[in-house]
Amino acid sequence: MNTEATTKTFLIRGLVAIAWAVVFVAVADDVTTGVTVAAGILVVVYPLIDVAASLIDARDQRGSARRVLLAGAAVSAVAAAALAVAATGSVADVLAVFGVWALFSGAAQVVVALRRRAQLGNQWPMLLAGVGSVGFGIAYIIASTGTDPALSMLAIYAAGGGIDFLVQAWLLARRQRGPAPLPA
Questions:
Q1: Which of 15, 113, 125, 156 could form a disulfide with 168 if both were Cys (CB 3.0 to 4.6 A apart)?
Q2: Where are the domains of the chain?
Q3: Averaged confidence pLDDT in the chain
């Protein structure tokens, strides 16, 4: 496994997720009656970011970790297509589809993080992100059935995930450098 490439992938993925959240808040704020074109495009793009990152990450993996990443990429590609359809409907439709995707992708992320513990060491940010994704997925599904669903909720998911990826990149970079030398 190329730890340096994985670190860069996590860093870029984290920065892109945070940037997506900022842009999404600007276009999705107070959208409750329908999905705007800009918000619809962004909800489709988000899982495609996951597809690209998973495929890049899978290049350096072998065995079951690679299969889980490829399966996650496939699920995210299907989610992007489903979100494209949902975006032509209501906010509730988008939240429901996004919620199902977040639930499944979070479960896959937990599996990958648990399997990478031996190779990459401490994976607690990825475990937290995966568990958080499952929790957010459930919350979005529930919110989609409510009387006033709001798309802006999705920005919290993206920003939180972005922060988790940045922390994981920092931990991996620190591990690559090794322990700090003791002062003389």
A1: 125
A2: 3-176
A3: 85
What's the one-letter identity of residue 144?
S
- pLDDT, residue 94, reads 94
Tokens read off for 9 = 């992938």
The tokens for 48 are: 């495609």
List Cα–Cα distances, 41 to 30, 46, 126, 143, in angstroms. 17, 9, 27, 21
DSSP state string for 107-165: HHHHHHHHHHHHHH---HHHHHHHHHHHHHHHHHHHHHTSSS--TTHHHHHHHHHHHHH
Q: Which residue has the higher pLDDT, 13 or 121?
A: 13
Residue 115, by phi and psi: left (phi above 0), alpha (psi -120 to 50) or beta?
alpha
Residues in Cβ contact with 80 at an 8 Å cutoff, skipping those fewer than 6 apart:
44, 45, 47, 48, 51
Structural contact between residues 16 and 49, judged by C-beta atoms closer than 8 angstroms = yes
